[in-house]
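Dear colleague,

Following up on yesterday's call, I've attached the two folding results inline so they're easy to grep. Please treat them as preliminary; we haven't cross-checked anything against experimental data yet. The first protein's sequence and structure tokens come first.
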Amino acid sequence: MSGFVCVLTLVAILTQFFRERASITLTSLAFIFSQAFLNFSRAGTSYIPGLCFLLTGIFLLLRRNDGQSSLAPLWAGCALAVSALLWLPYVLSIPAALVSPLFILDNNRRWRCSLLAAAAFTIVSASVYGLVMLHLRIVNTEGLASWIAMSTWAAGVGGAKRAVFGLARSFINMGNDGLLFKRFLAQDPYNPVSVPQLFRLTLAKIVFFYAFMAGVVLCLARSRIGKNILGLLAINAATVGIFAVLWYGGDMERYLPLYPVLFLGICASMNVRGYEFWFRTLTIAFLAVIGLSNAIAMANFTINRDQQRVVERTRELLPYLTPQSRVFVHDTDDQLYAFSRNSPFHPLNRSGNFQANAILIPGTRRDLHWQQSFAVLALAVWDQHGTVWISKRVLSARPLSEWNWVEGSDSRVRWKDTFFFFSDLDWGTSVGSTDGFVLLLPTQKNRGELTQFLAGASV
């Protein structure tokens, strides 16, 4: 429903300024088929509800109805506050949203709209955070700093190269070729990737995406309203871009705060006199690329194929599992780790016996003490008379290419760390093929080894 309202609100915004139905339709379709929106509109995250309120706030600020209610800017500020409260990175789009009337509207109420919206945004945000802090009994700066620190579980893998790739990935599915790009940037010694290998479909998609973005900028610079939107887009891109460089710029959801102004600019580019035909043609080509790439990646047959791989891999393990069992995979890039989240209604997940945990979560602080984290879980399972099953991948001296591991993506952990850690433990029953699972025995030696890590951590 939030995704549906997003589309309707975007159309309402575009209709305020442009009359050509073709440009509005093409822009809306590009918005629908962009990978981040298409993916997360079918997920249980707060990204799309937050985007819904962001678009609603911008729509209320940019309404061109002179008889509109004087409360519209206040409602706009409230909507923008809810957007940032649902997902904090939407705060990056708030400066551009609040000043959007100054750039786009031409009436005498522009400053009043922006100031009222800013006041409402500040009051609502401060009130909600104040109530939460009151509930948590946070009364000083030390308590506030501690609360913030509790939420910063991720290390924030950043960099300009990741941001360049992440922005394109937000629109176009890169498939497994995205893994090649990551290995190239990290200079993976186990599965190295050369420059010629990158001159494949991924690089072509990236080049095409930035060519399209360059076309948007050039077209916007050719008209008065286009220049205003370009200035607004520059403000929005600056805040979103800086954050992306510093914090997980490769994640496609990182650029959702940029979507409202960017798609407004795309529609405006198709209405620049003298450039309508060629840019609409370019937009149709862009729509065809993202539509085909993203629709195939998220089609039912693709999802069913991926699910079948997981089922085949775990088929021989299932008879050994009980509700007290835990299955451990090497890292979060293993398909098994995200299977319960991506396919919650699959019979394998509904049985209640299959629980997959990742030993490593690259890019997070957990990797600083992953041995202790594993020891805590394994010992707790044994204390409850459960069984601990480990993916055989941890006993391999080097990762295979299809295991999606990228050596160097997190400099604090290496593949050989887990290999040496597990190689010296006692093992029991082995099930499945070479990519199957093996039972970690609750022997005195294993308990002693894991307990030592806990003792070291406490010291």
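Below is the second protein, in the same order (sequence, then structure):
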Amino acid sequence: MPQINKARTHKDVPGHSSSWTPLRIALTVFFALDGFVFAGWVVRIPAIKAQTGASASALGLALLGVSAGAVVTMTLTGRLCRRYGNHRVTVVCAVLLSLSVALPPLTHSALALGLVLLLFGAAYGGINVAFNSAAVELVAALRRPVMPSFHAAFSLGGMVGAGLGGLLAGALSPTRHLLLLTAVGLLVTAAAGPTLLRHEPPLPPQRSRPAEGTARRPERRTRALVIVFGVIAGCTAYGEGALADWGALHLEQDLHASAGAAAVGYSCFALAMTAGRLTGTTLLERLGRTRTVVAGGTTAAAGMLLGSLAPSLWAAFLGYAITGLGLANLFPVAVERAGALAGPGGVATASTLGYGGMLLGPPAIGFMADWFTLPAALTSVAVLAAVAAVVGALVGTAARRAAGG
């Protein structure tokens, strides 16, 4: 009996990292796969546009299928995760994502493209909620703030997917390229999926129960805090979406950079964000979540002011890089805190609001650029980063109390 107890303690102690290493690796693989598949699809959008013969406006409406599918599914996936488990839902959504990415090049009209992108978006939204929920549970079990490392894997997967897509664009048709993504996705899921399915999710940390008659007030406060963390995620994703769609154009149009130099500007942002996430765990361990959000939002605000208003190209590059470092860990922290407060439902709410920010950013920048100028419009990224910093400072203490630590 003592030997059995000892073995069980060694394996099941929440902070014992070695027992969770296979699960952590498998989750990291799925984060990277998600970024890889999505980036591979994005780089072939111009070719799909030419194939369908869609106008710019028709293509824009078709691309809303991704957004609509993702947002609708994100609101439902929390319930599926609670019923079937985060790990099962992650594996199923990975299979659907891998299969559905092969469908766009098979379409020949904007309407058909929009319909298949609804399915692709649904799989994309579902897997994001499911593996973020699983990661939140693992973070609690490890008792280390490792959430940024998972999002770093997503960023690295996206960079590899985009780079490989650029290399293959001249050699493979969109159909063959995206079928290759399907094959890679299914193989990776077959390799990493069994590890997820074998491992039971870590048990949530014990929390004290509220006294009888007082349950409704903390519940309401928790929901409010989840929404607040979703707002922080949305402010962060707004900046990511804005820079992805408008960052290069600003350098080319306002600072007269060549097309190649303008592309380097966004690369500075993406590389800095990836580096920030790779070092995010160390930063969180030293500063804590609240100070990391405050410091990150402040840094991003300063960086974007420089990036949008700088008179020279190199100063703009520096501003983009500083912005990437500042924004790097805001989304992972916001999603992790929302999940710690309310489980998969909290992750779903924060992810939906975050994704909404990414959708809102590009069109909002476009309207403001028409009303004012593009550099002035891009300063809205700095404003929302500052808002994230202020909100993070205000809710930090209340969130720790609601989460029980």
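For the second protein, one point worth flagging: The mean pLDDT is 85.

Best wishes,
A.L.
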